[in-house]
Q: What sequence folds into this?
């Protein structure tokens, strides 16, 4: 993969932070109206965690956390499973400030203002390991080879026996160019997002059409398996554009 491709993805991540800062209400409207299935993802994670029988206090990370809506909502609905330590990583300081107010259920909170690539590329043998890692709607900005590298780094930061929840847009039409898939999403759903005016929808479309690179479910499974995760399962699939996958790092 070229340095240019990585830089383009990095700039897309920064642009997302800028969109967050300038149009917070757009993001919240999309989430609150479940346009990208955030609530379905939260419920699927909760169901999986209950099935896993995990109990006690966990070290949790969310890379590209935004306002930490997903992990904070997940743990708010769990009995017997809490966040001992939460690490949230995002390029937007404003997003992290909101996240701080959302994470009242965590015993300890560490919020890192950093681009995703920089955080995951940092080599530190003493770096924290996490029992549960979330990456939702962040990795689709990167080309496939870079997705593989970043998920491998997430694997290395996951504790043995730990869980990785990977929620994102995906390509439901194998053999179709990713840009065409984004166009399908626009024509079938995005243009009708509720609660947004025409200018706001155009701004979201501009960002998505220029930056999103959805992969097929098979490619996403391979990304997780090649990183080392086992028991990779699709926990949620809207059968069109959004999915949630879970992988388990083998116990030591």
A:
């Amino acid at each position: 993969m070229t340095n240019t491709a990585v830089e383009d993805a990095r700039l897309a991540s920064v642009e997302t932070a800028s969109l967050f800062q300038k149009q917070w209400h757009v993001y919240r409207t999309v989430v609150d109206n479940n346009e990208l299935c955030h609530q379905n993802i939260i419920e699927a994670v909760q169901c999986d965690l209950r099935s896993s029988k995990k109990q006690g206090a966990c070290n949790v990370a969310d890379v590209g956390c935004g306002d930490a809506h997903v992990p904070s909502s997940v743990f708010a609905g769990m009995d017997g499973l809490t966040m001992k330590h939460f690490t949230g990583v995002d390029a937007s300081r404003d997003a992290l400030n909101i996240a701080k107010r959302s994470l009242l259920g965590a015993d300890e909170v560490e919020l890192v203002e950093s681009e995703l690539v920089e955080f995951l590329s940092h080599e530190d043998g003493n770096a924290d390991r996490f029992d549960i890692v979330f990456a939702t709607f962040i990795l689709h900005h990167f080309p496939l080879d870079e997705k593989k590298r970043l998920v491998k780094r997430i694997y290395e930061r996951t504790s043995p026996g730990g869980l990785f929840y990977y929620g994102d847009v995906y390509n439901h039409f194998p053999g179709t160019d990713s840009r065409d898939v984004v166009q399908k999403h626009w024509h079938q759903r995005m243009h009708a997002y509720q609660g947004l005016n025409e200018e706001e929808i155009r701004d979201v479309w501009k960002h998505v059409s220029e930056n999103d690179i959805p992969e097929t479910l098979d490619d996403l499974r391979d990304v997780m398996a090649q990183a080392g995760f086992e028991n990779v399962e699709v926990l949620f699939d809207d059968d069109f554009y959004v999915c949630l996958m879970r992988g388990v790092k083998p116990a030591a």
